[in-house]
Amino acid sequence: MKKILKAASFTFFTFGLLGWLYIAVVALVHPQTLHLQLTHLTPWLREDTFGIISFAVSFFSFFIWNLVKDNK
User: Fold this and answer.
1) Listed residue (3, 43, 59, 50) closest to 22, CA to CA
2) For residue range 31-72, what is the model confidence (pLDDT) as tens digits?
3) Cβ of 51: how many Cβ atoms within 10 Å?
4) Fewer CB within 10 Å: C terminus or N terminus of the chain?
5) What is the mean pLDDT of residues 4-17?
6) How many structural domains comprise the chain?
7) How far apart are CA 54 and CA 33, in angstroms?
8) What residues contact residue 54 under an 8 Å CB cut-off, 6+ apart?
9) Which residue range(s) make up the domain with 27?
10) Which backbone phi and psi does 65 adopt, to 5 degrees?
């Protein structure tokens, strides 16, 4: 169980960080688009909201990953 939690938390950390970095680059290059929808499949999810969610997922997943990783 610990191995699965460790792998899942690291995966969520990685994808959350990549999502946040994507939005950070968009904010630098095209800041006028941050209020737009991220995709037509989720009309409620804007680019800036996706960045906030991605950062939170990355932060908490990294915290959990550090709690369960082996201390060798």
Assistant:
1) 50
2) 998 888 888 898 889 999 999 999 999 999 999 999 998 765
3) 20
4) C
5) 95
6) 1
7) 17
8) 16, 17, 18, 19, 20, 22, 23
9) 2-68
10) -60, -40
